[in-house]
Amino acid sequence: MKAHPVPIYAYVLLPLLISCFACPFPPPCQCSFRYPNALCVGLNLTSIPKIFPTPYGGWGVNFLDNRLRHIPANAFQGIKLQTLVLSENVIETVEDQAFSGSENSITDLEIVGNKLTSLPTAFGKLQNLQALSLSKNPLRDFDQEIMKNISKLLTYIDFGSRELRQWPTGLKYLTKLSMLVITNTSFDSLPGDAFSSFKASLQYLEINNTPLKTLHYSSMNKLYHLQELKLNGNTNLTAEAINDSTKPDGLPGLVQVTFQNNGLTTLPDVFQNASQLYSITVLDEPIVSLDDNLFTSNFSSEFQSLTMNNTKLSHVPKCVSKVNSITRLQITNSNISFIGKDDFYGMMNLLTLDLSANPIWNVSDDAFRKNNALKYLHFGNTRLQDIPRSIQNLKSPKYLSLSGCPIVCSCDNLGWIKNWKTRPENFQIDGKCNNVKTDLMDYIKNEIPKCTG
Length: 453
Ligand SMILES: *[C@@H]1O[C@H](CO)[C@@H](O)[C@H](O)[C@H]1NC(C)=O
Ligand SMILES: *[C@@H]1O[C@H](CO)[C@@H](O)[C@H](O)[C@H]1NC(C)=O
Ligand SMILES: *[C@@H]1O[C@H](CO)[C@@H](O)[C@H](O)[C@H]1NC(C)=O
Ligand SMILES: *[C@@H]1O[C@H](CO)[C@@H](O)[C@H](O)[C@H]1NC(C)=O
Ligand SMILES: *[C@@H]1O[C@H](CO)[C@@H](O)[C@H](O)[C@H]1NC(C)=O
Ligand SMILES: *[C@@H]1O[C@H](CO)[C@@H](O)[C@H](O)[C@H]1NC(C)=O
Ligand SMILES: *[C@@H]1O[C@H](CO)[C@@H](O)[C@H](O)[C@H]1NC(C)=O
Ligand SMILES: *[C@@H]1O[C@H](CO)[C@@H](O)[C@H](O)[C@H]1NC(C)=O
Ligand SMILES: *[C@@H]1O[C@H](CO)[C@@H](O)[C@H](O)[C@H]1NC(C)=O
Ligand SMILES: *[C@@H]1O[C@H](CO)[C@@H](O)[C@H](O)[C@H]1NC(C)=O
Prior knowledge:
It is a single chain. 10% of the residues lie in helices and 18% in strands. It has helices at residues 8-21, 144-150, 217-220, 239-245, 318-321, 411-414, 440-446, and strands spanning 30-32, 37-39, 59-62, 70-71, 81-85, 93-94, 108-110, 131-133, 156-159, 179-183, 204-208, 228-232, 256-260, 279-283, 305-309, 328-332, 338-339, 352-354, 362-363, 376-378, 399-401, 428-430. The structure holds 2-acetamido-2-deoxy-beta-D-glucopyranose (10 copies).
């Protein structure tokens, strides 16, 4: 048979195909072409490898966790970057022309955890930057000209390290900013105009591990569009100070709020006028009580979920009891010992109740009378010795967890179940008898029918 001559298009197309679909970085870097994307993560690289030019655009390139110290001029020549991750290296210097070729295409730059002491001029050339992650660099200030240059589209920034001793005034150019994350800074107060240039655009604010004693009211109370507020590890911030900072208008746009590990003994009243508020999360705060009026004036009719874990609450707060819209209530690892008859009286829509890991030993027989929607109850790791009789007040309970509870299985204690006429057939109870080696469900099925009376 006659050998087929190699068709002419192979000489033209093949190299083109190879250059289009070859990884621009040598192994062990890896590429995927769907986005397209190059991963050179955790390789101990001390310099950016030489790039095989590619005509493909819109690259995401990730050099997370290497040993890059210096980014030279033209380091990424030959590839059009969209996202560049240089986080967790030891970068001290970035040459002015470092991003040449990609200066108009980079939208996301992450350079968290490096050794930058000032913003490199190269950043100022990124005309279309939308997101900039700068946390964990010993930056002392932000160059005003650079901030001005990147302000056109920048909507996200995170920054902070102990070296930042004053509010970086360069932020005032970021008039489009919608998400701001501040971590590990050293200043203990914010200037009154800290957020003023982006007060109309800010939707997300997160402040972590700072010695802030107050959030300045003249900046906070103008944040009409703030949807999500997260405060974590700001141990010098008191509920009163947060309260004062957000007066008199409150934060009317709030949807979600998280407080964690700030040492709060009560919650600040930042919920007034927050008519769209959906959820509140409180973790590792020594909360002892909530103001009875916390959720009264103008409280959200959209409110669905309150999650509190590891607090010092010793009862279900009164202000919570009356929230009609709430569907999920969790107060776990706290100090609640007793459930009263009115603890959930206003919660007509409550579906899930989680009170696990509280020292609860008694639940009022009259609890849950108003909770027609309640189906899932978590009382695991409490001190309950019997199944709360008040579950008979529920319309259609589906699940009750009593796992880890010292339940005493006896006719005296559980015999009432025999007379519970409306017990739904598919109602599941999780847990074990503490006095006999039996699952609660098995005991109910096999032993309770034998009880007399
Ligand atoms: C990087 O260097 C560290 C310490 O020298 C070593 O333990 C690690 O295995 C190296 N990782 C790679 C991917 O070479
Ligand atoms: C600002 O952007 C212009 C235009 O790209 C550039 O020439 C200039 O060097 C930039 N300045 C700074 C301080 O980044
Ligand atoms: C903040 O500082 C802590 C140590 O105090 C460190 O573990 C953490 O990685 C830092 N986080 C950021 C985002 O700066
Ligand atoms: C809180 O403030 C005190 C006194 O101003 C200061 O000594 C302490 O370091 C601050 N705490 C934190 C976590 O910054
Ligand atoms: C917050 O302010 C209101 C009055 O504006 C006050 O009733 C409430 O006690 C304050 N809460 C805290 C925690 O300071
Ligand atoms: C917020 O509520 C207060 C009353 O507590 C009221 O004076 C103020 O006008 C309200 N502000 C907005 C923006 O709704
Ligand atoms: C409720 O909010 C409206 C505006 O949204 C405000 O005019 C009114 O004063 C607020 N009332 C209370 C009691 O906060
Ligand atoms: C709740 O707090 C306890 C510590 O009291 C912790 O062990 C647990 O992981 C926390 N659970 C959640 C979901 O945060
Ligand atoms: C828990 O609540 C009881 C009262 O019910 C109180 O005596 C005790 O001090 C509280 N414990 C903690 C750690 O707050
Ligand atoms: C639980 O509290 C009620 C009062 O609401 C009381 O009548 C009942 O005896 C208590 N149960 C136990 C086991 O102490």
